N4-(Beta-N-acetylglucosaminyl)-L-asparaginase
Amino acid sequence: MDRRKFLENSSLGATGILAVSALASCNTGSDKSGTAGTMAGEADKTAEAGEAIAGPIALCTWNFGKASEAAWEVLNAGGSSLDAAEAGVRVEESNPENMTVGLGGRPDRDGHVTLDACIMDSDGNCGAVMALEGFEHPVSVARKVMEETPHVILVGEGAAQFAREQGFDTRELLTEAAREEYEEWKKTSDYKPVINIENHDTIGMLTRDSAGNIAGACTTSGLAYKMRGRVGDSPVIGAGLYVDNEVGGATATGMGEEVVRTVGSFLIVELMRQGLSPQAACEEGVRRILAKNKGRQDFQIGFIALNKQGQTGSYCIHPGFSYRLYDANGHRNVPSASFIQPES
Ligand code: SD4
C-alpha cells in the first residue's frame, strides 16, 4: 500500500473511530478512573470561561478523577506544578482499564504497545519520548530526558536504552484484554484502523502551583493499531502540549495528525498571549483545524487551556469531551462546549 493510500485509509478509519467513541464513551459523563466523582451537591458545569481560580489548580483532559486528585495532592502539599503534572498522568499510565495510555494501551498494527509522552516545566524546559516500548511510565522517562540529557526528545530503542540506564523497570504492557481485542481486530482489519475500536482517553494535564508556576504533561499509547513507528501529537512539544509560564498552558487529545498540522497547543498559548481567554483560544484552535480540513469534520479534537490568572477553557469538535478540574473548592467534571452542537 502506498503512503497516500494508507493515510487516506487510516484517516478515514481512525477519525471515525475517535469521533464515534468519543460520543459513545463520554456523553455519560462517567468518571473514567472510577473515583472522585463530582462533589456532592455540585452539578457538573459547562466551561467556566470567565472565572479566575485562585491558588493551585490541576486540570486534565477527560474525566480522570484519580489522576487529577493525585496532581492536586502534590499541589496541596506545597509541591511543584511539575511534580504534580507528572504524578497526575502516572495514574493513568498505570491504569490497565485505560486502553489509550501506558499499561493496557492498545498495540500498533504489529502488536507492539508503543508509548509517547512529554513534559514541560515553568522555565520552558521540556522532554519527550516517542515510540517507547516496555516501560510503564513514559512521562517519567521524558522528565529524565529533560533533566539528565542535553536533548529534548529520545525515540524508540534509544529511548528504551536510556530508560534502562536510568533504572526504570521493564515490563510487558500488553494486557490480556488488549491482546484479545487485537486478535479480534486482526481477523478483519487488513491492518487498517477500524471504526469504533479506538477509545479516546489520552491524558494531558496542566497544573499551577501555589507559587503560581505552570507546568504540564501529556501521555498516550496513540491511535490503536497505528502503523509501526507512527507518532501523533501527544509527545510533540507545541502540538500535544505547550506551557509558557508568562502566559499559560494548553494540551490536546484526539486525532494527533490534525493537532500537529496546526501546532495546536502552541497556537492556543500564543493566542492567550495576544489577549484571548483560554476558552476563546481553544475555540480558535479548533476552528483553525477545521478550516484546514475544508468541511471535513469526521474526527474529534479536544483542547484544554489554563492561563496565568487561573482561568480555564476547553473546546472540541464533537460533543462528549470534558475535563476534570481540581482546585481549592474541590473537583468536578467540566463538560466542554463543542463546534458541532449535541443533538437535542
Ligand atoms: C494521538 N492524540 O496519538 C493521540 C490520540 C488520542 O486519546 O488523543 N487518543 O494522536
